[in-house]
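Table S2 (continued). Query chain:
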Amino acid sequence: QVQLVESGGGSVQVGGSLRLSCTASGRAFRTHNMGWFRQDPGKEREFVAAINWSGGSAAYAASVKNRFTLSRDNAGNTVNLDMASLKPEDTAVYYCAIRTRTSGSYVYTERDDYDYWGQGTQVTVAS
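Corresponding output:
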């Protein structure tokens, strides 16, 4: 079993910044892909960013590329999503996810690629 705990959500003005963190416990975190997804009420959960086990490769949704940066601290079992230049359309509940199946160095970006999810943290960007 894996437990994921997100933190860092909140409200921010347009153009502002936030850092979301996700801490994992229960398994060997450092060998697994980690991802962030987000969901607005009434919409599908969508991919935001993901990072491979070493942190050497990351992928981003086109809507957040060059604004969001994903990094991982394997010693601390934590991934951090730094969000800058926030827009109202970034408002959503953000979910952290971990893939515990064999991953290699590939970066996984589909919802079904992930095996465990956190409870989510709300991000609200006010115009």
